[in-house]
């Protein structure tokens, strides 16, 4: 286990960076890579670190995590909210959150609702809509929420969850593994690779959770020839899944995604990823998904079409306050991403789009 990787994951996972407010993760990216190449951003806030010459090979993770924004402040000082990204409301009640006000101050609160004592039998047995929930920050009035705590409409709200090592030392629990594992890997690839036969572009995109938005402008800005998307996809190795059909098992190695509703990955690039993993002795698991999507959905349609592959670290319970990963899967993704970058010379990149 790499102490560097764990420390980086901790700082990234505990950062407050919901869609449109990715500043804290962007600052970590810039701090870690300030001496590794040219740093720049696009008009949406996606960030890049570029070095080397040759075909433009991008390793990209998205900086945002699912979160919320303040939609209303009631007369009694409670906060109503809208969701940013996909939440299942069953996971929300009694969970701690942090509101970040305009001054950058962080205000702790808890997602609440009516106690069961005041609910009808019908209400107790249905999934509660987030419109019925509210956040309690301890304010006694709207005026106190605004003047004492600095809360404004639109303020970003992030889950509160400490990065924690479990009793099994290979397992870690935190919020935002989707997609801070991808961001950590993009940073470490750029920080560790000194020699590569290409122009390596490490990238952190914005607003992936709101429809793969940042990847559109990132592709226009950086104009990559090939993109390795680094992700934190959902694991499928818990009760309710057939273990024999699992394609995202903790400890099973880096996940190589071939297909999901947002993108069909370049078949030659998939083969290259698999053959590289085999040659390097890197554990991997191949997946074809019937739901979900990644930034590959935007990257592969940009410009004249960009070959994409998605590498992932399976995480249990993503889009909740507490996901779980196996750190060995992360190390496998890092090893494969670096090996692929080293192998993507001009000839290999040209071959990906040779159809005649």
Automatic annotation (TrEMBL):
One of its GO terms (biological process) is proteolysis. Zn(2+) 1 binds at residues 62, 178, 231. Gene3D superfamilies: Peptidase M42, domain 2 (2.40.30.40), Zn peptidases (3.40.630.10). Binds 2 divalent metal cations per subunit. GO terms for molecular function: aminopeptidase activity; metal ion binding. Zn(2+) 2 binds at residues 178, 209, 319. The active site is at 208 (proton acceptor). Its cofactor is a divalent metal cation. CDD domains: M42_Frv. It holds the Pfam family Peptidase_M42. InterPro entries: Peptidase_M42, Peptidase_M42_aminopept, Peptidase_M42_dom2. Keywords: Aminopeptidase, Hydrolase, Metal-binding, Protease. Belongs to the peptidase M42 family. PANTHER family: AMINOPEPTIDASE, AMINOPEPTIDASE YPDE-RELATED. This is M42 family metallopeptidase. It comes from Persicirhabdus sediminis.
